[in-house]
Queue: 2 jobs
Job 1
Amino acid sequence: MENLFIQSTINDQGQTSLEVGFEDGFSTLIPSEFNANAHNHITIAVTRKDFWGLQADFGISETDALGSLIKQFPNDNVNLIIGSKIVRKFR
């Protein structure tokens, strides 16, 4: 995963995505649902089909994605939902 990043992004229209790519080049976005609440809980949901595409293109795992999102949101409890599977880590 050298030079690879995984992050939650939001565009000017307010649409959220999970972005995966190489810091020095190619990246791709898949649509996501993003929810944060006042209790420091963040949930990011993507479809299983879209996530499998990222796995095929970049060789990432669910654990890689969750770990990167935890680094992006270090003060929050992060849930990653892939299809109907919840991948989570609480502080």
Note: The mean pLDDT is 90.
Job 2
Amino acid sequence: MSIQDKVYTQIQTRIKTICASEYDTAPKTRKGYLKRPLQYSGIVDDLVQLASAVLDMSERDAEHVFYDLTHGEIQHIFLQAKEKLA
């Protein structure tokens, strides 16, 4: 598995966790339906764009993206979302 594929998988995991957290904390009716449409933070849009771009990156660029995913703002948001789900 190439580094680009690993980074892509990592991005997808983060997107799923952040979106699941938003869904869990959204207000719902008694039947469990959402009261209003979900509004995801801008980071989700950025991650979706990054996921499509990472597959065409060089290995060095993909490594830098992986570092940013695991040490930067994205990691902080991911950990907050994980805490909400727990």
Note: The helical segments are 3-25, 42-54, 59-71, 73-85.
